[in-house]
Design a protein that fits this description.
Layout (H helix, E strand, L loop, with lengths): L1 H6 L2 H26 L3 H13 L1 H4 L12 H34 L2 H7 L4 H31 L7 H26 L5 H24 L11 H6 L12 H24 L28 H8 L1 H20 L1 H8 L3 H8 L6 H34 L2 H6 L5 H33 L6 H9 L1 H18 L4 H22 L3 H4 L3 H5 L2 H4 L3 H24 L5
Helix pairs in contact: 2-5, 2-7, 2-21, 5-7, 5-8, 5-9, 7-8, 7-11, 8-9, 8-11, 12-18, 13-16, 13-18, 16-18, 16-20, 16-21, 18-19, 18-20, 18-25, 20-21, 20-25
Length: 537
């Protein structure tokens, strides 16, 4: 049972293992480029980062000894890994609890005599083994990336990896418990994400506001941040490890009890069937259109992403003055912010950080849309739609149009709020430049949706993980190319590079044609493959 449960995590383990290895390696290898090679330059870098800690606290823990390579790797590399593994734990737990029930695998195991307690224990143990492989991959990336400048202490790296591993397993145990209260895979993902995001925000608030310090200790993120053993003079937080271990035992035990009490494919607390009420009016004629029905079914997903992008637009633009004032005297950081183009540093910051972060958020939105298409396929929804009957190519077309509408709305709201916020802090953006940077985001995000549509037509169960890895590496290449002085032939392999920096330098036309070619080829290939293959295969 353990072997099979471990095998179910193989795609996540491979994908996140590659992500952690490459991400940590890149940060360790780039330290000399960012902070310099002398003691004085690294001290100046650490001082500047200390001045921006309140602005960066939404994304990273407070810096500790970042005048050293080990401290920088702990802050800049291991600081964001808790969020990355949170995303994996949410998806893995929902799939292990609800996905396997939807595929009727749990029916087979129970009929074969496997106890429900053994199923829960096997799930926890399998994810723990998979998470261990992923965390070790990240540690190897740190060792190899730092080897050329300042080798890391192996014992301290092991301590940091231990804290990260225990945190990941705690996330999974919590999400397994939460999944017992929902009735679908999507519901389990949404509920798990909501709980963990709230816990994350508690930790974020406590980083700069001491009034939240006591409350933040209910958050596993705070327990992880308490460990700074990788940096010189840091320590491994014993209470943090014990609290994570307690969450694993308690949440795992409660999940086992809840699983014993509920019915398969049903929530722990089922509601009585609601009475059928007659409608006082006819449904909207718009719902007779397949695209309108698809938009209506995905309305909460699109609304949630639009809201999140809007919040990030306001946040990233509003922190521009404080961040630039503290970084302006660092030549290396100035080059990083402006991508070597110079000009107004405030405008460059907004272009680099908001119109640099917006593509990443939209790529994540595209991956989420692809995951819903994959779920429709594997859960039998696509088969039901095709039985109406309908043309298979029309399904692919409707998915593409849904992506266009959803991405365009999110881009419009985010860019409008970014421009309004910039004007509010006294740095008016060029309207033509904002419009140019905004509309190019639509074909950019469609590139990932098209690749996902094509991949989902061949491998619906694996496409989300593979597409996530592709998006991460594309972003990583774009970030590191100017720092590491890579040739344009390598930099242009990134879709982010194809998007360019239109707010500062105009449209990169060759990149636009390449993105449009990928969009047409991806959705075209998806339509052709949809005609040929068996649904749910």
């Amino acid at each position: 049972m353990l072997r099979y449960a471990f095998r179910l995590h193989r795609w996540g383990m491979i994908g996140y293992g590659v992500v952690l290895f490459a991400g940590v390696y890149a940060q360790a290898a780039a330290y000399s480029q960012v902070a310099g090679t002398t003691v004085a330059s690294r001290a100046a870098f650490a001082h500047a980062m200390g001045l921006t800690e309140s602005q960066l606290s939404f994304f990273l823990p407070l810096p500790y000894r970042i005048d050293t390579l080990a401290g920088y790797v702990q802050w800049r590399a291991y600081g964001w890994l808790s969020v990355a593994l949170m995303i994996w734990a949410i998806a893995a737990a929902a799939g292990a609890v609800r996905g396997n029930e939807d595929r009727q695998l749990v029916d087979y195991w129970l009929s074969a005599g496997v106890s429900r307690l053994r199923l829960v224990v096997s799930r926890l143990a399998a994810f723990a083994l998979a998470a261990l492989v992923v965390v070790v991959a990240g540690g190897l990336g740190a060792l190899i990336g730092a080897a050329s400048s300042a080798p890391l202490d192996l014992g301290r790296l092991a301590g940091q990896s231990l804290a990260l591993w225990v945190l990941a397993v705690a996330f999974f145990a919590l999400c397994c418990l939460i999944a017992q209260f929902t009735a679908s895979t999507r519901g389990a993902q949404a509920a798990g994400a909501a709980v963990l995001v709230v816990l994350y925000l508690l930790d974020v608030l406590a980083r700069t506001q001491t009034s939240f310090d006591g409350l933040s200790w209910v958050s596993p993120f705070r327990w992880y941040d308490a460990t700074n053993v990788l940096g010189p003079g840091g320590h491994l937080s014993g209470p943090g490890l014990l609290l994570c271990a307690a969450v694993i035992l308690v949440a795992g035990g409660l999940a086992a009890l809840a699983f014993r009490r509920r019915d398969l494919r049903g929530p722990l607390f089922g509601r009585p069937a609601a009475e059928v009420r007659s409608r006082g009016r006819k449904p909207s004629p718009l719902l007779s259109w397949p695209l309108a029905r698809l938009l209506y079914r995905q309305r909460w997903i699109l609304a949630g992403w639009t809201l999140g992008i809007a919040v990030m637009a306001v946040l990233m633009v509003s922190i521009a003055p404080g961040s630039i004032d503290s970084l302006i005297n660092l030549p290396g950081m100035r080059a990083l912010l402006t991508h070597g183009q110079g000009g107004d540093p405030y405008r460059a910051f907004i272009a680099s950080y908001w119109f640099g972060l917006a593509p990443l958020l939209l790529a994540a939105l595209a991956v989420h849309l692809v995951s819903t298409w994959s779920a429709d396929d594997t859960e039998g929804i696509l088969g039901s739609e095709l039985s109406t009957p309908r043309h298979r190519w029309a399904v692919v077309l409707e998915r593409g149009l849904l992506a266009v509408v959803g991405i365009a709305v999110a881009v419009a709201v985010g860019s409008l709020l970014a421009a309004v916020t910039a004007a509010g802090i006294g740095h008016t953006l060029d309207p033509a430049g904002v419009l140019r940077a905004s509309w190019l985001l639509v074909p950019f995000a469609l590139t990932f949706a098209a690749v996902g549509a094509a991949g989902g037509a061949f491998w619906p169960r694996a496409v989300v993980g593979v597409l996530g890895v592709v998006a991460f590496f594309s972003f990583l290449v774009w970030q590191l190319a100017p720092l590491m002085k890579w040739p344009s032939s390598i930099a242009n392999l990134s879709v982010f590079q194809l998007y360019g920096s239109p707010l500062l330098s105009g449209v990169f036309w060759n990149g636009l044609w390449a993105m449009l070619a990928i969009v047409l080829a991806g959705f075209g290939l998806a339509a052709i493959q949809m005609q040929r293959r068996e649904v749910d295969q």
